[in-house]
Amino acid sequence: MSEAEAAGERRSGGCLCGSVRYETSWPPLLTGVCHCRHCQKQAGTAFSVLVAVPFAALERSGDLTVYEDGSESGNPVMRKFCGKCGSPVFSETPDGMAQGMIFIKAGTLDNPDELEPTVHFWTQSKQNWVTIPQGAVLLEKQ
Ligand SMILES: [Zn+2]
Ligand SMILES: [Zn+2]
């Protein structure tokens, strides 16, 4: 357990309209950027920024709508969003859940200034204009 966890550090976030709210332990297990076409479509933009956190350390409230996505890798992704305002908030994968891990769409954090993405997924479908900072780990696929 890290010092931050021992200190019980928490961060909060929610969807655009505020119907969905959550609180999570901090820092995240991983901060990554996903350039897959599915994330581009779902977010309506160039990529998703995701933080992986322990599911057990996440508290959430509000109604989530679920879209069961096939994903480019063929593994199912449960994409959970606010049915009222449409903000994508959580993604759950069977592999992640087996490890007790859930992904939060990092743009929904109340303070996204602390984010430091270290891994870029699905760079093979990265949009041409996007430049990835030096030093990041690049994965062509998942
Ligand atoms: Zn909402
Ligand atoms: Zn993706």
UniProtKB/TrEMBL annotation:
SUPFAM superfamilies, per database record: Mss4-like (SSF51316)
Keyword Ribonucleoprotein: no
Family annotation (Pfam families): GFA
Record's keyword terms, sorted: Lyase, Metal-binding, Zinc
Residue stretches making up the CENP-V/GFA domain: 11-123
GO MF term list: carbon-sulfur lyase activity; metal ion binding
UniProt keyword Amino-acid biosynthesis, yes or no: no
Protein name, as recorded: CENP-V/GFA domain-containing protein
Species whose genome carries this gene: Novosphingobium sediminis
Lineage: Bacteria, Pseudomonadati, Pseudomonadota, Alphaproteobacteria, Sphingomonadales
